[in-house]
From TrEMBL:
Listed name of the protein: Spore germination protein KC
Family to which this protein belongs: Belongs to the GerABKC lipoprotein family.
Entry keyword Glycosyltransferase: no
Domain Spore germination GerAC-like C-terminal: 212-380
Pfam families reported for this sequence: Spore_GerAC, Spore_GerAC_N
NCBIfam families for the chain: spore_ger_x_C (TIGR02887)
InterPro entries: GerAC_N, Spore_GerAC-like, Spore_GerAC-like_C, Spore_GerAC_C_sf
Source superkingdom: Bacteria
Domain Spore germination protein N-terminal: 25-180
Main location: membrane
Membrane topology: Lipid-anchor
Record's subcellular location: Membrane
Length: 391
């Protein structure tokens, strides 16, 4: 009996050893090309051009660096093909290491490519098992993805890390891959991304800036939001961190400009919908609190009447900007980037069942009203311009 148990134990050991045959398909770190960012453009000859920004470990500064000439931290390569996969295959033929997309934090659509449709690129993102769904999606504005990925950035050794950090700090509009794919496939909301452009071209200070958002309709780029309209859109999305507004409170004079600036502390947007005579109607209400950041007027906002006047002025200005943004999405872009369709789906599911297939066109005719209520909680220590008598 004991002999049988011993034989069975040895048989178990041999079977386990047979399974532990080693990592026969392993890939060493020094055999991989780590892609930090990639971009896709439509070339002048009609082909697709893919650009990769690859980290070079020997060029990344570290605490062990003792001197000598620093090596370039990234390699940027491009190739053309009939589609993205063919171009990617040609890029692999240029590289001694296997392309690895597991570290990619940024994907850029070239403006020309995006205006012609992004269905193929989205399909590739979905199919690639290495794609990170928490990487940021951007669209280039006034330039190509290739130029963006070749642009330097002084604060980070790898430029794409700078882009990721800029998108992660809430001071620019950002969208990650999973959210973008969800919007692209949805009938309730149109897709939108952050938009990146180059500045200070052909100078020693050439770099990039993310100060716009790119609007898509039926998976094609239709335009950009910037300035006050972008601020209004960010408010809808609850992305108001560090957001500031300035109004002309008094006529400018020699001793002061007559402006007041505030920074938002809290903001909450409520959207209500109703169906009237077979058509949806939308009401938007924004309530926000703010603090005064600059007062270049002779007005003392310690006085309640002056403070109420300022609150009313800011409420009217922000209401005008939000109304302008919505009007632009309806009349020019014809794209529901706010997601009003989603609210109608939630509140009126039976109506949405009939309207969802035509929502992209119906949205342009839907009346939208906006009401804004700004409360200023902190007026600061300086109440008026120091060179004039407060009133």
């Amino acid at each position: 009996m004991n002999l049988r148990r011993i034989s069975f134990s040895w048989l178990t050991v041999f079977l386990m050893l047979a399974l532990l045959t080693g990592c026969w398909d392993r890939t060493e770190m020094d055999e991989l090309a780590f892609i930090m960012a990639s971009g896709i453009d439509l070339a002048d000859d009609g082909q697709v051009e893919v650009t990769l920004q690859i980290a070079l470990p020997t060029g990344i500064p570290s605490s062990l660096t003792t001197g000598g000439k620093a090596k370039k931290p990234v390699l940027v390569v491009s190739a053309k093909g009939k589609d993205g996969m063919e171009a990617l295959g040609k890029l692999q033929q240029q590289l001694s290491r296997r392309i690895n997309l597991g570290h990619r934090g940024v994907f850029v659509f070239g403006e020309k490519y995006a205006r012609n449709g992004i269905v193929e690129a989205v399909d590739t993102l979905l199919r690639s098992p290495e794609s990170r769904f928490n990487s940021f999606i951007l669209t280039s504005s006034g330039t190509t993805a290739k130029e963006i990925l070749n642009s330097p950035y002084q604060l980070e050794s790898i430029p794409s890390i700078g882009i990721s950090n800029m998108q992660d700090n809430d001071f620019s509009f950002s969208v990650k891959t999973d959210k973008f794919i969800e919007m692209s496939a949805s009938l309730e909301v149109s897709a939108v991304t952050g938009a990146i452009r180059t500045i200070n071209k052909k100078t020693d200070n050439e770099t990039f800036m993310i100060d716009k958002s790119a609007v898509y309709r039926k998976n094609k780029l239709v335009g950009f939001l910037s300035g006050k309209e972008l601020k209004a859109f960010r408010l809808f999305k609850g992305n108001f961190n560090g957001m500031r507004f300035t109004v002309q409170m008094e006529p400018p004079k020699e001793s002061y400009k007559g402006t007041v600036a505030i920074q938002l502390l809290q903001a909450k947007t409520k959207i209500r919908t109703r169906i009237r005579n077979g058509m949806p109607e939308i009401a938007v209400a924004l309530k926000a609190t703010a603090q005064i950041m600059a007062n270049d007027t002779p007005t003392d906002f310690n006085k309640e009447t002056n403070l109420h006047s300022l609150e009313k002025k800011f409420s009217e200005e922000m209401q005008k900007e939000m109304t302008s943004m919505i009007s632009r999405t309806q009349n020019k872009f014809k794209a529901d980037i706010v997601g009003f369709g989603r609210e109608i789906h939630i509140e009126h599911p039976y109506f949405w069942k009939k309207a969802k297939s035509v929502w992209a066109d119906l949205y342009t005719k839907v009346p939208v009203s906006v009401k804004v209520d700004i409360t200023i909680e902190r007026i600061g220590r300086t109440q008026a311009h120091p060179n004039v008598q407060a009133k």
